[in-house]
Amino acid sequence: ARSFADIGDIVRGRDLYGGGRNKRRHEKDAERDHLEQKLIGIFAKIYNDVTSSARNTRTNGAEPRYLDGSGDFFQLREDCRTANLDTVWGAFSCCADPGNAYFRPTCSGGDPTTGYCRCNGDQPDADKENIDPPTYLDYVPPYL
């Protein structure tokens, strides 16, 4: 199973897994290179859609921000992952059943997290500190 961190790292082109780089006998490209080319193609379409003036009267600086010489669209990939992080985290945590074992039953202070992985009565959209997705769970095997 892949965690959101793993998928996000693949989208950004920064994942730690380097496998699939060897070509198989009957394939012209390695699996990993094929995936990278597909991602570049997807983000090229997103870039063209965001910066096209036919639909958008203003691009709000998107063209100079995302135009890089390499054509890999790494900044656009990073921004897409960042924009989706809160939404995916909300789906992971806020829709959890009370008996769900996805989160630890206690926080550092001993109070239960009540299904949101937040301590001290913090609820989603309450604009309190510490509402960002906790990054310490990203690469911990029991939480992947």
UniProtKB/TrEMBL annotation:
GO terms for cellular component: membrane. It comes from the Eukaryota. Pfam families: Duffy_binding. Residues 1-144 form the Duffy-antigen binding domain. This is Erythrocyte membrane protein 1. InterPro entries: Duffy-ag-bd_sf, Duffy-antigen-binding. SUPFAM superfamilies: Duffy binding domain-like. The lineage of its organism: Eukaryota, Sar, Alveolata, Apicomplexa, Aconoidasida. One of its GO terms (molecular function) is host cell surface receptor binding.
